[in-house]
Amino acid sequence: MEFSELIRTGQAQAELLRGPEMPPLRGTLCVTGHHLLLSPGPQATPDLWLLLLRSVDSIEKRVAGDAGTITLRCKDLRVLQLDIEGVEATLDIARSIEALSSLESVITSFPFFYRPKGLRLGEAWHFHPPERYYKRIARETRAWRLSEANEDFSLCPSYPRAVIVPRAVDDDALARSARFRQGGRFPVLSYYHAPRGTVLLRSSQPLTGRQKLRCAEDEELLRAVLAEARPGARGFIVDTRSAQAAKQARMTGGGTEAKAAYPGWKRLHRPLERGRPLQESFVRLMEACGDPEQSMDRWLSRLDGCRWLSHVKEALSTACLAAQGMEWEGACILVHGAEGTDSTLLVTSLAQLILDPLSRTMAGFQELIEREWIQAGHPFQLRCAHSAFSHTRPKHEAPIFLLFLDCVWQLGRQFPLSLEFGEGMLLALFDHSYASPFGTFLCNSEKERCLCEVRTRTHSLWSGLNQPKEQRKLRNPLYVPNPLAIWPSVEPQSLRLWQGLFLRWTHPPEPSEVAWEKVWQIATDQKTEGSQPTDSASEPQP
Amino acid sequence: MEHIRTTKVEQVKLLDRFSTSNKSLTGTLYLTATHLLFIDSHQKETWILHHHIALVEKLALTTSGCPLVIQCKNFRTVHFIVPRERDCHDIYNSLLQLSKQAKYEDLYAFSYNPKQNDSERLRGWQLVDLAEEYKRMGVPNSNWQLSDANRDYKICETYPRELYVPRIASKPIIVGSSKFRSKGRFPVLSYYHQNKEAAICRCSQPLSGFSARCLEDEHLLQAISKANPANRYMYVMDTRPRHRMQSWWATQKDIGRIILNAMANRAAGKGYENEDNYSNIRFQFVGIENIHVMRSSLQKLLEVNGTKGLSVSDFYSGLENAGWLRHIKAVMDAAIFLAKAIMVENASVLVHCSDGWDRTSQVCSLGSLLLDPYYRTIRGFMVLIEKDWISFGHKYSERCGHLDGDPKEVSPVFTQFLECVWHLTEQFPQAFEFNEAFLLQIHEHIHSCQFGNFIGNCQKEREELKLKEKTYSLWPFLLDDQEKYVNPLYSSTSQKPAVLEPNTVAFHFKFWRNMYHQFDRTLHPRQSVFNIIMNMNEQNKQLQKDVKDLES
């Protein structure tokens, strides 16, 4: 295998420091194609310490005398220090890690080699296809159909093979609409809000350009949406750019829907940060979180300066706006920014969590992520190539998915009983989206995943997470199904820094896991005893 | 009541403080002798105790009526719109009168009647017994004894009658030392650590000026250090910031150059211990700011978080400018220093600030709380407050502004203590028997004047007011409602490290929303973990009982 050329040295003696809470580990350090291994001496605990090289975000090396030190900053925000015997060995190991952690090829990545016990290949990949979601909608309404116009990804390379569109619009019209939208992302159904019979759609920007072009099929598509919903139904187009930015986009061929061309639709601008500014916000937040010596004033000013919580507030507010439009005004909502693969998905997925109780279950949340992020074409490989510590200039990196997870965490804090999954699930998703032995977050679109045969040659994260042994970590012991919409408060006093993620490796003295374990104990006591034949009315759900 | 002209106003609107759509409730406003009551159209009642009112404002007349804004000491802010200006004016004037009483006898506690007989009331007052508490700590013993020097409040009016001092400190030494200390507050025992045989002592600043000495005071400190067989060195902690003391020192020196030295000496009423004069002491400044800085810091904090439509950025820059969390961290750091001196170095510590009733109370009580798990129980916490705050003369009536007095004496010193404890409960979710609601309830009552505990400024004054005969103690009422205040995650057995070692890195300090926005319900989580865990616990217990009953 070609990895061997990149591995400069076999092994070296080293000591690993994993932060103040954990004891150091001594042993033999070894670099393999995908991992960094440390095997302790025979007398020590037999546990092998293993780090996926893909999860290394940045690496720093220092040598002094006849020893060296390597500092590894990982994509899950951990900082590790390796003290290595021998200068040559240090440099060789550092170079090997550098080369192997930045390999771009997908099909040589670890998920293609990972074969865990107890899981079968191909399992769980069939859990969440669009067809399944369509069946759910078809039970409620006949107004929508499943179109396979994108069967060969020719209409839109970043959409899945099948999408849900108004029944009244045929595949030819879809093809024309696709040509009128950036990247071919024509308006498709994201969520059907059954209680009010309204829908949430997403797309990319229309290519109106300087000449203010129009597209009859695109207009027809949106007209059909309103016509199917209800006579006289209204629609809102939530543009995630400022009015100014949307106007400017015309210069480069993009633009917005002209009011006259889309009767019944009203445009609202809610600018959300994306791309490089968002990545910089994340980087600056982590810089602030990495400095325990700073004064209170400095910390507060850096927390303010990095603007991360402002982004959380804006994302939640915009999602609330979309959800309110559907729930309170009975309106249809179309969300898009420019490409429709980032902040658009943030808004549509959060709006669903607010409105749809099913998406707050463990299975429903996995389905939501699969449908609204992975199959909807969020370019994970580009966005999550590096996390907050990389020294390389960010190209396409942006923590949009992390921002989504943070918003979900805020929802969970405000409605601690309404999400079936706990913080552990969100942390796991963050970790796996940046580096994972599973194939779920590989590639940028369904098309690429098909080319790489991800589904047949790697394991799905969902089958990994749904194993019984993982449940205690991932589930919320206090969950009680809540049929209502959950409206979060977005006042700054109600939002909090997600310490469990951003300060995960700088624990407070009594880790929250201990308290979490206690909550589990109380809740499971309750469940085992509650299942006895007593007539307790509020028996929680099994 | 002579102050009440209008007792009932209809069609009053209550505005939601944070709603951007100007939502409001319409209802009827009632004014009683003790409360302002608003009943909205859903029959929901909002009670506001007159004593809780910090500020009433009548704003300019609008088309919908006359706005009346009331800010309370428990951080409730209500915004009424009264249809007729005359009604508004009447209510405004009445509230101005009713919220500021001129004498103690007019406070609510003297009329509050929970329908208990005299013996029940007396038993309530006996619930916390400080002599018992000192016994629990292990004093008197061979090194420490009860002193009768202040039995008649002759030496220090603001101390309790019963004081514990080193056995070898004779009465003349105590008397001499008290003359050298501000307000006569000489060094006495606050907490005794039985295992380490080390003590936390407290006092006020020495009146040393530049160079004045007092041999008795030096002897008393020596006696304290000798009472600790494990470490002859003791710490003297001055809780004031060093820069303030040094700038004071500099101004004194300037004055000294102008006027006669001896005059300056006598004029000087401030100082700190000179390490050269005291053997075996290590002097340490820890920077907690004075009551005026704290008052204005809280004021700034409330201005920021009271803003409608606040942006995240304004919130955090406001939080930074207010400096509130910085002050909380300073108090916490001081308490940690104290606990470490005892645990790591086995050293006794003498704590003082200026008068020894504000910062000193904060540091001594918080330090004891870190050291001793007992103070983290519901009863223990009551004892701690009785000991380090009430008995040692924290001036509750002045600091909380119970009576119409000097606004410069008002300061949120005790609120800061409660906030520090809250931060500890956040860092150690299993270490405390009580929950946040308990802290909030205590805060409610330091201002409510419904119970006698916090009325007055020192024990002598409380005795003169005959509080134990005329009013009720808060503690038995809290114990009656105990289930509301229990932390379901508390585990007395898991207290492996009996001593708490909190982390005071800046990012562990958070804005205490449930205190400063207690009544702004839209800002809070919509579901309570606490309630559901309590219910589960309750049901578990019930089921276990059922199982037992069935088995027997």
Keywords:
heterodimer, A: 542 residues, alpha+beta, PH-domain like, seven-stranded antiparallel beta sheet, five-stranded mixed beta sheet, 14 strands, globular, disordered C terminus, B: 552 residues, 21 helices, Prot-tyrosine_phosphatase-like (chain A), Myotubularin (chain A), PH-like_dom_sf (chain A)
Write up what this structure looks like.
Chain A: Residues 124-502 form the Myotubularin phosphatase domain. The complex is a heterodimer of chains A (542) and B (552). Chain A has 542 residues and is α+β, with helices and mostly antiparallel strands. Chain A folds into two domains: 4-103, PH-domain like; 131-507, no CATH class. Chain A is built from 20 helices and 14 strands. Chain A has helices at 3-6, 87-101, 130-138, 171-179, 216-229, 243-248, 275-289, 296-306, 308-327, 343-355, 362-374, 380-383, 400-414, 423-434, 446-451, 454-457, 461-465, 471-474, 499-502, 512-530; strands spanning 11-17, 25-31, 35-40, 49-52, 56-64, 67-74, 79-85, 144-147, 163-166, 188-193, 198-202, 235-239, 265-269, 332-336. In chain A, strands 4-3-2-1-7-6-5 form a seven-stranded antiparallel sheet, covered by helices on one side. Chain A has a five-stranded mixed sheet with strand order 10-11-14-12-13, sandwiched between helices. Chain A has a two-stranded antiparallel ribbon with strand order 8-9. The longest helix of chain A has 20 residues, at 308-327. The radius of gyration of chain A is 25 Å and the shape is globular. Chain B has 552 residues and is of the alpha+beta class. Chain B has helices at residues 85-99, 118-126, 130-137, 171-180, 215-226, 242-258, 261-267, 291-305, 312-322, 324-345, 359-371, 378-391, 396-399, 413-427, 436-448, 459-464, 467-470, 475-480, 482-485, 513-516, 529-551, and strands spanning 8-15, 24-31, 35-40, 45-49, 53-58, 66-72, 77-82, 144-147, 163-166, 188-193, 198-203, 234-238, 281-285, 348-352. In chain B, the strands form three sheets. In chain B, strands 4-3-2-1-7-6-5 form a seven-stranded antiparallel sheet, with helices on one face. In chain B, a hairpin with a 4-residue loop joins strand 3 (35-40) and strand 4 (45-49). In chain B, helix 10 (324-345) packs across helix 14. Chain B starts with 7 loop residues before the first strand and ends with a helix. Residues 254-267 of chain B have low confidence and may be disordered.
